């Protein structure tokens, strides 16, 4: 017999767990880089406007779908309209693709944390250290399995005793650590120039690309279009106010992203003597540049260790949301129990994560469309499937079940102040913008053009 459906204990648990999903590597290694690249303050402003309009509407929609139906993605779309259960299936595929490679990166984070904690920072700061670490066949797999195992263990404890409990500890700690490092980094000699660079609007760098990149980042950062918000919404109590929860989650997500910029941009600036090209995105920034920056700081080994704890917490709360989404889909669909499902999902992810991990060493000769395995999974999930699912969701809500179905759900637990805006965005604005994101990221990946 299927287990009784779990739920978060109340609003705080829901908000912290969902913010935990939203705050992740995207906030720390992608947001600061994008802000620096696309004109500092102007990017921040565009991002903020998009977050309170576009991101707000999409997040409300997904959470309301989850809470209304009380099931995870596949079942939710099916329950609302049988003909459209394929959207749920597509949404469910996204976390299954992301979780394995996200965990490979999670493994690298634990490795770096262990390097800093054991006082070996100088090694991590040497040229070629990262490249030779990820090229090894076995060590990264060990760390990857450790990260995956930790994620699985938390998910095994369930929604309230696992995810909610862990989020209630990790998220406040994460905020404190982020602010601490940001202040420390801004106090470094030469850092002020970096602060100005980050917050001053540079209108010459403003273009359609600024808006599209901000929108793409917003999607990823708010964990939209992959069934996560539907799943978490299905665990939300009926009396918790959706609109105000979403506002708080956004504040968390955008606030941490902003502080991550204050933490990283000034430090890299001070280190590189104002050379903005040192601010590369992704793994290069986190695992190559930052260790060198920490090495140049007084007390750098402590700051570095604190930084990797913070990143680990951010990554873990995101990976548990990915895993919970996959686990709940199988539990809902087949009526399996949580333990069995966790074990099976763990094994599946280990198998699918192996090529991503080995893709920088043993399997480095094999590429797909010029991507390494890890980058390919990232591209397919984030740049192709997520926009497709988001587009279909808007059409489904706007024209098939009609926005009223969801606004009624949202209003069942309080006033919905931005209802009109919600309807206009879901029906008209979001579908057009999402198609633009999809086309531009595919053209970009194919090296054809950049909008
Ligand atoms: N939202 C997370 C971030 O900003 C990333 C994430 C993506 C988390 C997909 C879960 C699923 O990094």
| Overall 3D form | globular
CATH superfamily heading: Hydantoin permease
Helix content: over 70%
What Rg do the Cα atoms give? Answer: 21 Å
The sequence of SSEs as H and E is: HHHHHHHHHHHHHHHHHHH
Name the structural class. mainly alpha
What name does CATH use for the topology? Hydantoin permease
**Which residues form runs of ≥5 with pLDDT under 50?**
none
Total number of helical segments?
Answer: 19
Largest sheet: none
State the end-to-end distance: 52 Å
Mean pLDDT: 92
Note down, in words, how this protein is organized.
- With 451 residues, the chain is mostly helical.
- The protein is globular, with a radius of gyration of 21 Å.
- The protein is built from 19 helices and no strands.
- α3 packs across α12, α5 (85-117) runs antiparallel to α17 (373-400) and α16 (338-358) packs across α17.
- The chain has helices at 11-22, 25-37, 41-69, 73-80, 85-117, 121-124, 129-135, 139-156, 159-186, 191-199, 208-221, 228-234, 242-272, 283-296, 300-334, 338-358, 373-400, 403-411, 419-445.
- Bound molecules: phenylalanine.
Layout of helices and strands:
Layout: H1 11-22, H2 25-37, H3 41-69, H4 73-80, H5 85-117, H6 121-124, H7 129-135, H8 139-156, H9 159-186, H10 191-199, H11 208-221, H12 228-234, H13 242-272, H14 283-296, H15 300-334, H16 338-358, H17 373-400, H18 403-411, H19 419-445
The structure holds phenylalanine.
